[in-house]
Structures are given as C-alpha cells and as structure tokens.
Amino acid sequence: MKLKTNTSGNPTAIILIGPMGCGKTTIGKLLKEQTGWQFMDADDYHPQANIDKMAAGLALNDEDRHPWLLRLRAMIDKSIIRKTPIILACSALKQSYRETLGIDQQKIVSVYLKGDPDLLASRIGNRSHQYMNKGLLDSQLATMEEPDGGLTVDIGTTPESIVSEIITTIQARTSTVRK
Predict the structure, then answer these.
(1) Four-residue CA torsion sign, 7, 177, 107, 173
(2) Whole-angstrom Cα distance, residue 143 to residue 11?
(3) Is 136 exposed, middle or buried (0-12, 13-18, 19+ CB in 10 A)?
(4) 5, part of any domain
(5) Of 15, 66, 94, 125, which residue is least crowded by CB atoms under 10 Å?
C-alpha cells in the first residue's frame, strides 16, 4: 500500500504517539516498509542529559523535553519544505507537546497507539531499550493526555493489522478531502 503525498489534503508526516511499550518503533518501521517514507525515532534525538536522566529512572519534565521537541519540530518542518514524507515515533504525551510538533491533522497527522497498561507493562518486560527504564511507564501514563483528533488505534492486535488500519484510514480521509 502506498500513501499519496504532497498533494492537496495529503499528509507529509505521520507522528506515532503514545507511552513506552505501545509499539511506536515497530509500527513506524513497518509503515516505512509499506509506504517508502523515511522513519525517524524521536528517542534518537534526545540530548545526553535527557538520556542520562531516563537511564537513572528519572522522568523528564517539560523543561527537559522542550529543546528536544523543538529539534523534532525543525526536522518535521524541513521534511515538509523538502516534500520528503516522514514517519516519526514520538511519545508526545501532552497536547502542548503535540502543538509544539505542529500536529495539524492535515500535513502532520497523529496516530495514537493506545493500549491497556498491563499490555504495555508486559511488552516493556519483554524488551531491552538503550536507556528507557521500565519504571518510567507509570510516569508516562500519568502524564499522557489522550489526543483530540487524529487517529486512535488499539494496539491489542498484530503490528501488521495496525499498519493496515493506519494506511487505510489515512487513505480514506485524504480521498474525502480531495472530493
């Protein structure tokens, strides 16, 4: 399946949002395979101070996240200017973070990967991450503000089904916009 881009009503960026363990990276990589879009994981762009803090099991605050979010926004803006569509895996836990990223549900579409806390915890227990401490899940869930708008997908199914749902829904929305 391919997503059309850079025409009226079509997105140029998909941002996969949600707490740790929801599958942002897995879904993002599968979306890349299906769409040919560039994939970026926001975790790769944290400053070292944030990485050190999270590795120590300490939650980031708004002040910690702000420069990171601005860096991500600059990358999104650059991709839009260059007409190079991207998929970004980014927790974007709060509405204010999503606003900083410029999510407008037109050029920049959010997909909230929503899951039961027990499922998230079990997934985290089955993986290793370079610096995300398992103890941070409770903090992320407490911080998470469910988004208004965008697409919400239940993660209780296979990654392939989730990717298919995302592509199908975005295609349907953009074909409606063009009519």
Answers:
(1) negative
(2) 27
(3) buried
(4) no
(5) 125
CA angle 7, 166, 118 (to 5 degrees): 150
Distance CA 28, CA 162 (A): 11
pLDDT for the residue numbered 179 = 42
Angle at 55 between CA 91 and CA 101, to 5 degrees: 25
Beta strands in the chain (DSSP E): 13-17, 38-41, 86-89, 108-114, 151-154
User: Residue 133: what residue type?
Assistant: N
- CA distance linking residue 38 with residue 20, whole number of Å: 21
**At 98, which amino acid appears?**
R
Q: What is the DSSP string of 148-160?
A: SSSEEEE-SS-HH
If pLDDT is split at 50, 70 and 90, which confidence band does 27 have?
Answer: very high
- Among residues 96, 115, 102, which one has the least CA distance to residue 18? 115
Please give the residue range of the domain that contains residue 164: 13-178
Per-residue pLDDT reduced to its tens digit, 114-133? 999 999 988 887 665 555 56
Handedness of CA 125, 128, 134, 136 (dihedral sign): negative
Helix (H) or strand (E) holding 101: helix 95-101
Within a domain: residue 61?
yes
Residue 41 in domain: yes
Structure tokens at 95: 């509405």
Please check whether residue 20 is in contact with residue 91, taking contact to mean a CB–CB distance below 8 angstroms: yes
